[in-house]
Amino acid sequence: MSKNAILFDLDGTLWDSCVAIMPSWQRVMEAHGIKREPISQEEMNSYMGKTVEQIAPLMLPEVSLKEAIDIMKEGCIEELEELKENGATLYEGIIETLKELSKNYILCVVSNCEDGYIQAFIEHYKLEGVIKDFECAGRTGKSKGENIRLVIKRNGIDKAIYVGDTILDKEAADKAEVP
User: Fold this and answer.
1) 128: how many CB neighbours lie within 10 A of its CB?
2) How many whole angstroms separate alpha carbon 123 and alpha carbon 134?
3) Secondary structure of the chain: what % helix, strand, coil (to 5)?
4) pTM score, two decimals?
């Protein structure tokens, strides 16, 4: 029997976490004495899908790259508690859709986030039996395309598609040779 899978990006595909995580980021920056305009939803949206190393110089150009990355990693830890407890804005019908799809497909999540972020999504929405596997740049240090291939190999998947919302997701899927 063929093992077929649907792999999903998380931000912008399954949920929108921008509003939920903005207060966490503001607190971390204030704790580090960074004085700047509050993060807008539009600004936060522009960071989604990128790695910490890509976001750091954009969000915090006034500090060294090393310091910006350290602050970013602290912000990622801070946001996890918020997401585990309160979740974020799910797209309409997403939980029901995932549960229905899981009857016939292996479902996985592959994202450029830090370790713990996908787990917060799965934990908050009680999707442990629905999402069979996940991978992220924060855990492997690999690109999204490499992580897509890793999840496919790890699960012995014969056919897969990747569902995302940006050109970066398409490029990652192309790199992994997955439609």
Assistant:
1) 10
2) 13
3) 50, 15, 35
4) 0.88
- Going by pLDDT thresholds of 50, 70 and 90, the confidence category of residue 48 is confident
Structure tokens at 23: 């207060």
Could you report the per-residue pLDDT of 118-177, keeping only the tens digit for each? 999 999 999 999 999 999 999 999 999 999 999 999 999 999 999 999 999 999 999 999
Which helix (H) or strand (E) element contains residue 136?
strand 131-136
User: Angle of helix 52-59 relative to helix 65-86, nearest 10 degrees?
Assistant: 110
Tell me the one-letter amino acid at 112: N
Written as six digits, the tokens of 43 are 């600004």
Q: What is the CA radius of gyration of the chain?
A: 16
Q: How far, in Å, CA of 179 to CA of 162, rounded?
A: 6
Angle ∠(127,83,115) on CA atoms, nearest 5: 75
Contact 11, 111 (CB under 8 A): yes
